[in-house]
Specification:
Layout (H helix, E strand, L loop, with lengths): L4 E2 L2 E2 L3 H21 L3 H24 L5 H25 L1 H4 L3 H22 L8 H19 L4 H24 L10 H10 L1
Antiparallel strand pairs: 1-2
Helix pairs in contact: 1-2, 1-3, 2-3, 2-6, 5-7, 6-7
């Protein structure tokens, strides 16, 4: 595979290509949602959600993590989860509406993380904290079960609640860091590192 270097990092690798796929398939998923093609929407969204879990794991296992890859993955995450949330509104709103306040609370904290990151660092918050990664897995399982098997209230609150916790932690980490960097595990490790220095 030919090397492409951006800011001293080799960025042409498998995890980044997977993230790029998620960006490129976004308009197709959007089209399926807007034209009410639920089956294709679910298939393509599920592939994107699974690929989201795979790219990070490959990057960590084979030590292919880069700042470019983290930012690309984060951007792909935004589009993927925007499509998942759009799918909730278009296809499953009857189930979600009685619990919508909790979803709105999560979305508010999620958007706040981007506001904090842009104000403090001028870029998207390309952190992959343990809590956020695990929340992504739980939310992916929730979306899959929702569209394939139906709505379970307890699973909705677990998925959204876990995401809420993860993004509260991300906001606290963003307020403590001097700059966004790869390899930040969570608030506990940030505080521990501060005490050691």
């Amino acid at each position: 595979m030919k090397k492409i270097i951006i800011k001293g990092e080799s960025v042409l690798n498998v995890p980044n290509l997977i993230s790029l796929y998620r960006l490129l398939v976004f308009p197709v998923i959007l089209f399926m949602a807007l034209t009410n093609r639920e089956n294709w929407f679910v298939i393509l969204l599920s592939i994107s959600l699974v690929s989201d879990a795979i790219d990070g794991s490959i990057a960590r296992y084979f030590k292919l993590q880069t700042n470019f890859g983290a930012a690309l993955d984060n951007l792909a995450d935004i589009f993927t989860y925007a499509m998942a949330i759009l799918g909730l509104f278009i296809f499953k709103w009857i189930d979600i509406e009685p619990h919508a306040w909790f979803l709105y609370l999560f979305l508010g904290v999620f958007v706040l993380s981007y506001f904090i990151s842009f104000v403090r660092f001028g870029k998207i918050p390309g952190l992959h904290l343990y809590s956020a990664v695990s929340a992504g897995y739980v939310q992916s399982i929730f979306f899959f079960i929702l569209f394939v098997f139906g709505f379970y209230t307890w699973m909705f609150y677990l998925a959204v609640g876990w995401g809420l916790f993860a993004y509260i932690e991300k906001n606290l980490v963003l307020l403590r860091l001097d700059d966004i960097k790869i390899g930040v595990k969570g608030l506990y490790w940030v505080i521990k590192s501060e005490k050691e220095n």
